[in-house]
Amino acid sequence: MKNRYKLAALFFIIFINLAGIPDIALLNAFENPFDPMIRGQVEFNIRFFDRQVYYAQTNPVYVQITITNNSPNPYRFKLADDRAFSIDFDIRTMTNRQLPQSDSLIRRRTQVASVFFREITIESGESFSFVEDLRDYIKFEQSGSYRVRAFIYPELYRSVLASSIETNYLNLTLRPPLIPGPDGIPLEMDIATGAVLVRQNLPPDQVVSYMITARQQSQWERFFLYLDLDAMLQRDPQIRRRYLNENEAGRRQLIAQYRLNMMNSVADDDILMIPTSFEILRTVYSADEGTVIVLQRFRYLNYAELRQYTYFLEKQQDIWVIVDYSVQPMGNVSND
Fold it and tell me: In angstroms, rounded to a whole number, what is the distance separating the alpha carbons of residues 106 and 115?
């Protein structure tokens, strides 16, 4: 019997050598994710997904978790459909006081239910990322400065004794809650200037002019101030179906991703183009809906391109916001 096992092992080694596959590589492909050698070659990092001014008890704080495989072999781990069973956050004040977990996180982890997951394989040289809102995990009770790190559970969170891998630290600053502006409209902060931005009760043509001018000056907070990203995101029927099937947290993530895609010029290229000049041609509006037609000029080396933009607006809580747009090419002209 022993000779039979030895013979089988010999054939296995010969097969590996004939196939040109190093036996160590074959074994490493199925390594324990907590093995020190594997962990040294696989990076677990976090960063702010859409860095902005954060306020206590208001806007979401999205963090992107990225796992990068720098090893020569595939890296495998389990990712739960409910990310509370795959990740955790440790947030502390500058005096090292740990913030309490959110009530929703405690409920999700203590209810009796099956944990559904999928196995993720990251090939050598590739990365895998996903985004989470810190408010789904931690209860923020007041403004201040905090240190944030994440814990990844490759084999899922089963109890407080579950094995985890920690990430780098982030510095988070939460400002005091926003003070409502005129008519209860929330105030926003301009990251570039530190000034408070307030949605004003402007007519539709001025709203469009404000948005285009902000884009010309690359002022993102001002550019987004009068854009209804919720409505613009749902213009695509496929995305709209996905959006309607998401819960509140999932919808917030879709909108945050949409905003980031616009800032990275991978969504809605037409509205992101920076015109050399523009002219309001016509404005028509009723009590709740408006249309603004704008001729925009884009200067190139030997010519200028003309485009006619039609912006569609709605009045929401006495404020005109842009909910859609269309573009019509108007030909090229020589530069003046």
Answer: 15
SS3 87: strand
Number of structural domains found in the chain: 2
Answer yes or no: is 300 within a domain: yes
Instruction: Show the tokens assigned to 256.
Output: 């945050």
Enter the pTM of the model: 0.49
pLDDT tens for 68-77 read: 999 888 999 9
**CATH number, position 232:** 3.10.450.50
Range of the domain at 262: 182-333
Token output for 103: 């009530």
On whether both 318 and 199 belong to a single domain, the answer is yes
CA distance 106 to 282: 55
Q: Across the 336 residues of the chain, what is the mean pLDDT of every consecutive 10-residue run?
A: 50 45 38 56 88 74 91 90 91 91 87 85 91 90 89 85 86 72 48 63 94 89 88 86 83 83 82 92 93 93 90 91 93 80
Sort strands 87-93 and 42-48 into parallel, antiparallel or unpaired.
Answer: unpaired
